[in-house]
């Protein structure tokens, strides 16, 4: 695992501030959410596979606040790398209060028999096993304080099947099931939820809807709503499947 990118200063956290771990933090929803939360005074612990984008995000976070944000180059598909990541957060006294399992991939639109096996594996390994790896190593750290919220990014495709993206659908249905099952395993005081972010103009949506994707809300607009929702989640939400407010209307092409 690469050395963490961090701010040099580490002032005392503001009252009520949270330590929020976001996977897939370097672009799209993850990046927008990190910037939104940092602007509200919260500490970001992020990971991604793109060091260049991590470095540019670190610069943006530094401009927003002097909080000691930590960004790591981690592939969530690797259990070993995630284990190292968890150990590093302990060493830096940054065990998260909130985890947003945001890292995800979608397959190119095609029928299952037209899809290469490796592409299928990449989607499942990132979207399902990546979340499992994070929970495997971070839940025990959160249990020690008997509190914490984990948000696993789902999709409308994880609640209603969509043609031509079967691997993605399978992965998000898996996220829903994984979240509900583990919600039954964590102690009182913790919460595991699945969250459908809605339709947002990202590279992922662009790959599915190249013509209409630009008509949807920006990641920044989404993040302003999502951040408030995420910060207000409690253990009472444990096991629920939620959707960010005003998720957008699903086009007929995806219905």
What report would you give on this structure?
This protein has 255 residues and is of the alpha/beta class. It is 40% helix and 15% strand. The chain has helices at residues 28-39, 51-64, 79-91, 117-143, 166-183, 203-208, 219-231, and strands at residues 5-6, 19-23, 43-48, 70-73, 98-101, 148-153, 190-196, 241-243. An 8-stranded mixed β-sheet has the order 1-4-3-2-5-6-7-8, sandwiched between helices. β2, α1 and β3 (43-48) form a beta-alpha-beta unit. α1 (28-39) crosses α7. The longest helix has 27 residues, at 117-143. Mean pLDDT is 92; it is low at 8-15.
Radius of gyration: 17 Å
Shape descriptor: globular
Low-confidence stretches: 8-15
Beta-strand share of residues = 5-15%
Number of strands: 8
Mean pLDDT: 92
Judged by helices, strands and strand pairing, the structural class is alpha/beta
Query: What is the helical fraction, as a range of percent?
Result: 40-55%
**H/E element sequence:** EEHEHEHEHEHEHHE
C-alpha end-to-end distance:
41 Å
The largest beta-sheet arranges its strands as 1-4-3-2-5-6-7-8
Number of helices: 7
Largest sheet, in brief, is: 8 strands, mixed
Name a few traits of the molecule.
8-stranded mixed beta sheet, alpha/beta, 255 residues
């Amino acid at each position: 695992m690469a050395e963490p990118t961090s701010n040099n200063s580490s002032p005392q956290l503001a009252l009520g501030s949270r330590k929020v771990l976001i996977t897939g933090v370097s672009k799209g929803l993850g990046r927008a959410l990190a910037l939104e939360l940092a602007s509200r005074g919260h500490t970001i612990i992020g990971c991604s596979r793109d060091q260049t984008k991590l470095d540019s995000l670190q610069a943006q976070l530094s401009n927003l606040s002097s909080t000691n944000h930590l960004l790591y180059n981690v592939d969530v598909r690797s259990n070993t790398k995630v284990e190292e990541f968890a150990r590093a957060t302990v060493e830096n006294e940054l065990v998260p209060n909130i985890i947003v399992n945001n890292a995800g991939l979608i397959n190119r639109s095609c029928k299952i028999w037209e899809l290469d096996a490796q592409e299928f594996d990449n989607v499942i390994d990132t979207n399902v096993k990546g979340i499992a790896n994070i929970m495997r190593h971070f839940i025990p750290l959160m249990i020690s304080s008997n509190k914490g919220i984990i948000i696993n990014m789902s999709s409308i495709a994880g609640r209603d099947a969509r043609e031509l993206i079967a691997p993605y659908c399978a992965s998000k249905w898996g996220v829903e099931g994984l979240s509900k099952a583990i919600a039954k395993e964590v102690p009182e005081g913790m919460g595991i939820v699945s969250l459908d972010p809605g339709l947002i103009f990202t590279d992922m949506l662009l790959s599915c809807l190249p013509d209409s994707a630009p008509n949807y809300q920006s990641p920044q607009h989404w993040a302003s709503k999502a951040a408030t929702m995420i910060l207000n989640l409690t253990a009472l939400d444990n096991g629920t499947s939620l959707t960010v407010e005003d998720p957008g209307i699903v086009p007929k092409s995806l219905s």
